[in-house]
Amino acid sequence: MANWISNFTSETDLSAKHIRPLENAEDLDPLMHRIGDAKYVLLGEASHGTHEYYTWRAEISKRLIEEKGFSFVAVEGDWPDCYKINRWVKDLPDSGSSIEEVLKTFKRWPTWMWANWEVAAFAEWMKSYNSNLDPAEKVGFYGLDVYSLWESMEIIVNYLEKEDPETATLARRVAECFEPYRKNDSYATAYRGMNQRCRNEVVQLLTEVRQNIKKYNDEREADLNAELNTLVMKNAEKYYEAMASFDSSSWNVRDSHMVETLNHLMNYHDDHAKVIIWEHNTHIGDARATDMAAHGMHNVGQLVRQQHQDDGVVLVGFGSYQGSVMAGEFWGGKMKKMELPKAIEGSVERLLHQHHSKNQLLIFDDDSPLKEIFQERLGHRAVGVVYDPHHERGNYVPSRLSDRYDAFLYIDKTKALHPLHLKPDGHLVPETYPFGI
Prior knowledge:
Blueprint: H1 2-10, H2 12-18, E1 19-21, H3 29-35, E2 40-43, H4 51-68, E3 72-78, H5 79-89, H6 99-103, H7 117-130, E4 140-145, H8 149-163, H9 165-178, H10 196-211, H11 222-243, H12 249-268, E5 275-278, H13 281-284, H14 300-308, E6 313-328, E7 335-340, H15 348-355, E8 360-363, H16 369-373, E9 377-381, E10 396-400, H17 401-404, E11 407-414, E12 421-422, E13 428-429
Parallel strand pairs: 2-5, 2-6, 3-4, 3-5, 6-11
Antiparallel strand pairs: 1-8, 6-7, 8-11, 9-10, 12-13
Helix pairs in contact: 4-7, 8-9, 8-11, 9-10, 10-11, 11-12
Protein name: Erythromycin esterase homolog
Pfam family, one: Erythro_esteras
Keywords: Coiled coil
């Protein structure tokens, strides 16, 4: 560690050349150059409740869409909820009069992840940008996650009853299989006992929806919506069963599902499609560069690199030294604004703060000295939706930063993001009101 600190802090010329200041969108030019013609750009976050991570991801995404023709944004969110945003930014019929109207329908805890002012502002920008494009060229917004079992089931049953009554009969049978477990639905609980007939019928339903997909053309992307809601049903059953084993298998099922969904989206779009992915660092940073690999875990960043490296993959991590964050004290608990303590000694974030207490952009090109310098395994903070600032040392993932990411945005001081909440008088205020933000 001492050698690492010496190499990093003594070479001021090296630092000035390879670690750039990060103050505005123009400072992202080196990152745009690093991305080049890559088709897969994965943008992380060190927490699900930090304003700056959302706004910097939005700035990067705007430039990728405007300058490099990226096709859609795919996020760590439920397919049905995010598809509502997709319909709104593409101005499809009955998609909502405002983005606030769309986001207030997000009910699943933690609601603040997507129902917030930062996402609303980016969605407004997307809709404005799309307004000048032909329908087939409009930029989309999709959810990759596996948690929306019940919502996806209800959507597919209702949709098939209108469009494909024969397949709807099978969908209703599948729904009946899942119904006994509905009361246990949450991130933190799991169920066992799904019989083999139910599993077979979930797979059969997905097969039949795919075979009949060309029938589902009453609205642009209706076929995509039907297929991916069915895919959620198939993989959600595997995910919840895996959770009951209390090992790494549920994590792997979830991240494999997100990559499977991503691949479906890329195949649905044309051969020139490019995607921007928004997820937590623990999903987009290559797991092989962390202690996750020793526990038998893989993640989205690793799988996308392995499957699509020839098409260009760029992984961008985020981190910060101190500030505030939105989180809950326990699963399902009331969200609150919490202090984000100063990063611990020996962490990536502490060392970057000691180097320069300003926002910084690091690019890990193969010929950059930073590539070798950041091979040292260092703690890298990861804050979840459940967070206890008083037990900070357990929130650090040992990481070889320059293998985990291709670039890193360091924000010295952050603040909590701004959740939405609709009061009875119709005025939007932060959800923590009256306690303030």
